[in-house]
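hiii, so i know i said id send this last week but things got crazy w the move. better late than never?? heres the sequnce for the chain we talked about at the cafe, plus the structure i predicted for it. fair warning i was half asleep when i ran it
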Amino acid sequence: MTTLYQYLAVKKGAAYKDSQIKPYSWLSKAPDITKQANEIAGNSRVFGDISAENQALVIDLLVEIGTRYKLSYREIAYLLLLVRVESGFNPDAAAGTTSAAGLAQYTKATVAEAKKPNYSKHYLGFELNLDEMIVFDAQRGAYGALLSYFICRTRAKEFFPNALEANIYLFHHEGWYFNPKGKEDNANVIAVRKIIEDKILAKLPEVERLLKQKTEVQFSLKTSDGKPYANQPFAVVLPQSSSGQHPGSVQHQQAVKVVTGVTDGAGRTPKLEAAGLSEVVFSILNVNYKKLLQHFPGRGTGKITSYKVKSGDSLSSIAKAHKTTVSEIAKANGIRDVNKISVGQVLRLPGSGGDTAPAYWWRRPEMDWLASVLAPHIGAEGLEDTAAVVEHKRSHVVLPTGNKAHDGTVAHNNVIVAGTKSQAQVAASTTAQKVPHQTNETKAAKPVAVQSSGTGQKKVITGLLYPLVVKATANYHEGARRFGSGRTGGRKHAGIDLYAPTGTVVRAMAPGKVLRVYAFYCGTSAIEIDHGSFIARYGEVDSKRDKIYVEPGDKVERGEKIGVVGRLVGIKVPSNMLHLEMYGSSSHADLTVKGNPPYQRRDDLIDPTPSIDQATMQ
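okay and structure toks below
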């Protein structure tokens, strides 16, 4: 069976003679190819002079970019053939008589035009820079080809509304500003039309057919040191069906197929079948996600995306409670007999996510949508609860049959998903997170303060209990979450932010005495506790009276519940976290000190990061 890659394969073209090469040609300015080992490169600047493996990678680039910009199968086929005609899929190709270069053979003038606001910014959503040697970058070149396709399609609609396909390439070859009126008998136009007829239109149906073929995709999880990530829970979202004209998408769709499971001993998922170029969203779940969900069932922003059936429930009572109808719930869950539901069954609630797909298939899909789709399949009840157990999410395009770009040892798509942890780190974290702490541990060792060399900010507190019942859902060593990260006005972040779903229990890290409870930031509160060798500020906890479980003067034990994670409101991106600050003395003076840069805090402020790194879950 001939694959797309075999069908599109081209032979190396003829090289330009030295006498033909102009000074402004890239063959004159940069005849040699200099690229990094991980870049897609041709063998020379000659048309089609590229290895079969790299040619396949270029085809995959064009296919994925065209798919993400929601082209139809036929339009993607046209895009592929346009590039095939121009460069033979060689990103380093260059003309000898002009400044044309790269996948789409952009000239110096076209490069300048592409950056104008009415072009790349308008069609692609960003300014495409193809200046100088950047024109040979394969990914940028693929975007350049797509941009030209969009512009030329628009021009063809203007002049040839009833014959688009026969004229799109005409405007690419002759220029975006070409006016074809009165030039039908022009020898150059006739020659270009012959190219369109023989090399594009004649091949379109077969390329389109090959793009549509059903194929298999499989995901293989690897650790950072290349070892299999076995027994890891995952969830894959696939389209229920394809329109036949456009690749099937899933982003923002509710009518999707969800496959859950765990990877095998080699870190692999089962093989999944999908139509060519379908979008699939692959998610890795926390290895203990079922236990974690038990700690915050149905909590979150109040935006419940699903409902777990309880004894005595009926679809009628559930519909009434959630302001919907029995038929809508049945439709959302594929229920045929509305009188048959079972205790423990998780139902998706209508209205928890729209069916309006975005204009572009984002590689990192929105968590709100993904959570609403996954919740019924993993036993979660709230949007944020679901988000808390998703450790990785990524939108993938199922590449055509015959693709071996990801793993050349297999005959089907095998997408390698590489983690950031080594095999040893995975084993250690799995052990550490097995059972979230739920009870007080009065016999736990007393915290010990260890002073390392340097300032007081290097103080490390050992023997602490992790302040949340689950691990933070985002890395507090990075970004705005980390200690010392920049804030407005030159201030630095005085603590670390431990992201967790609203309602997640906050617990005392060690025995101590509550000093203060007060309004803190964006509708949340803070609890200050003197733990003997240090003071901690547990910030951004829920301000509701029934959600704060301690008062000033209360003595607390290690592991005692003191509050729950709150929700920041009134800011651009509402969020939920425990903001944790630590101070290296037992002074009861105010922790915030205005005018004391750069943290605007007391001088005994310490970085909580190393102490929390060593904290245990139980």
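btw The chain has 17 helices and 20 strands. thought thatd interest u
miss u guys!!
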